[in-house]
Design goal:
It comes from Xenopus tropicalis (Western clawed frog). Belongs to the aldo/keto reductase family. With about 325 residues, the chain is an alpha/beta fold. Helices cover about 35% and strands about 15% of the residues. The chain has a domain of about 220 residues: TIM Barrel. The chain contains ten helices and ten strands. It has an eight-stranded parallel barrel with strand order 3-4-5-6-7-8-9-10, surrounded by four helices. A two-stranded antiparallel ribbon has the order 1-2. Helix 1 packs parallel to helix 2. The protein is globular. The chain starts with 7 loop residues before the first strand and ends in a 26-residue tail after the last helix.
């Protein structure tokens, strides 16, 4: 497909999602005001797809930024595609809609464009987003994810959200939903870690075969948040192959990393709170990789997951024991 700054991908429910999105997650040590300023800059630059989540703790700020840009005439509400996420303490069916309503209230929006299950791992329902027992171990819970999905379908029917999907699901977990009796709406997307070191070719092929869009986070190699990510892992943007291709096209390694995914039909989320970089990343539409570039980038895949959530690896629904 020809990719330009207004390019969208059609979802299986008929709605359209911009192929480039602005991610707003930042490690706890950063002030939430950065998400507000960054989102405003992103909308000014041309981003129309904004990705956040209850768990990021910044929906108040992100909502304020979106509303400010609507108020000053930069965009209309229908120009903005907002994605929110159902956190792991809200999987019991009766907690799904209140969770969505809480986010909408924080955002001060009437509806979300997309609401997705953040991760299949479920934690004990309650007010604490990361519930621990007296030994400091996470307290797990086990709702049938299909019951959670039915509650999401009801939110869509109620008009609180246009599209519904999932995140961090492996193909078996996707199949559980796709094959469930009485399925009303298929997930429109699966948002997963995906980048040149984890190119997700098998999961991408699976999702395409089911008409599910793969949305990529961690495209530039993750936030390297010390509390989650091993600091000894290689820095993706320093990769020599990416840098050689960037030099050849007179662009940045980040643009090559993004463009590679876009040309494979993946929706790309990219996060920066630095105005110059927000602008630079949006110039990805001026870059084009040829077949040789694509093959060379294919060759640096090493199935390296930065964000593999090891603290939940003993959870019955931990998604990353499967190859894809």
């Amino acid at each position: 497909m020809a990719l330009h700054k207004d390019s969208c991908i059609e979802l299986n429910d008929g709605h359209k999602m911009p192929v480039l999105g602005f991610g707003t997650y930042a490690p706890q040590k950063f002030p939430k005001s950065l998400a507000e300023e960054g989102t405003k800059v992103a909308i000014d630059v041309g981003y129309r797809h904004i990705d956040s989540a209850f768990f990021y703790g910044n929906e108040v700020e992100v909502g304020r930024a979106i509303r400010a840009k609507i108020a000053d005439g930069t965009v209309k509400r229908e120009d903005v595609f907002y994605t929110g996420k159902l956190w792991s303490t809200f999987h019991t069916p009766e907690r799904v809609r209140p969770a969505l309503e809480k986010s909408l209230n924080d955002l001060q929006l009437d509806y979300m464009d997309l609401f997705i299950i953040h991760i299949p791992v479920e934690l004990k329902p309650g007010d604490d987003p990361l519930p621990l027992d007296e030994n400091g171990k996470f307290i797990y819970h086990n709702t049938d994810i299909r019951d959670t999905w039915k509650a999401l379908e009801k939110c869509k029917d109620a008009g609180l959200v246009r599209s519904i999907g999932v995140s961090n699901f492996n193909h078996k977990q996707l199949e559980l939903i796709l094959n469930m009796p009485g399925l009303k709406y298929k997930p429109v997307c699966n948002q997963v870690e995906c980048h040149v070191y984890l190119n997700q070719s098998k999961l991408l092929e699976f999702c395409k075969s089911k008409d599910i869009v793969l949305v990529a986070f961690g495209v530039l190699g993750s936030s390297r948040d010390e509390s989650w990510i091993d600091p000894n892992l290689p820095v993706l943007l320093e990769d020599p192959v990416l840098n050689a291709i960037a030099k050849k096209h007179n662009c940045t390694p980040a643009q090559v990393a993004m463009r590679y995914l876009l040309q494979r039909g993946v929706v790309v989320l990219v996060k920066s709170f630095t105005p110059a970089r927000i602008q630079q990343n949006f110039q990805v539409f001026n870059v084009h990789l040829d077949a040789e570039d694509m093959r060379n980038v294919d060759g640096i895949n090493r199935n390296l997951r930065y964000d593999y959530a090891p603290m939940w690896s003993d959870h019955p629904k931990y998604p990353f024991h499967e190859e894809y």
